[in-house]
């Protein structure tokens, strides 16, 4: 409902007040009845002129009916109608209008209940059809959009709705445009804002996604180990006929292992590496030292046993 224009009120007073002034100025023998009828006449004329005057904004069209029949469109700007004969039935807004709509607890093709919210962008292309072909075109667009959304949800699977929203938007726009074209409405675009699924299904999908990520991590780790093994195999082929390179590599491994690092407590060097690096003499000396130490301990133990009987005999004699 369009509000009253301030120019209507101004026009009313510009006609009514001068009319009263003229009555008092040109009637020589003023009579109360004549003055009363003059005031009434001036008031009626001012009201009729004010009713005939209308202003349509730049984005509006006024639908005019004359005695109930469509006569045309007026606006934008000021225009006059015949009072009590013509009337403005509708003010049609020609700008792009946004309408939000949603479908609650609607089953998808794979029987998953979802709540979907969407936004519709539309505009009136033919004001005459919008005014005459449907009772309330805004309400009709809202219901048509909601039913079309339910229809699209019922024909789509949940994965398609979550991944292919652009495709669903295009399908939904086409369906709504076909339904509203007869009302003179043009659908600019449709955008699905949100798809809400049950909490239990969200938890299950989260677990599935986590398991999928773990599987991919294991596959990547296995592939990395395979690549490392292939590189080691290539390196082994390189060292097979090049003992000098193998010796240098062994020395480098030992150097890297002996470097002081944080939280380093033990260095394990394979015996084969020591043999490769000619550390056999060192290990031999170590083994010899260990055998000498063992013989010394054994001799000391036997010597201790020989002294014990002598001490026992002395004790008995005493």
Any key phrases for this structure?
three-stranded antiparallel β-sheet; 60% helix; alpha+beta
Main beta sheet, described?
Answer: 3 strands, antiparallel
- List the helices and strands in order: HHEEEEEEEHHHHEHHHH
Bin the strand percentage.
15-25%
Q: Structural class per helix/strand content?
A: alpha+beta
Low-confidence stretches: 279-285, 309-318
CATH class of the domain at 97-197: Alpha Beta
The CATH architecture classification of the domain at 97-197 is 2-Layer Sandwich
Could you tell me how far the N terminus lies from the C terminus, measured between alpha carbons in angstroms? 135 Å
The CATH superfamily of the domain at 97-197 bears the name Band 7 domain
Average pLDDT reading: 78
Query: Could you give the count of β-strands?
Result: 8
Total of helices: 10
The percentage helix is: 55-70%
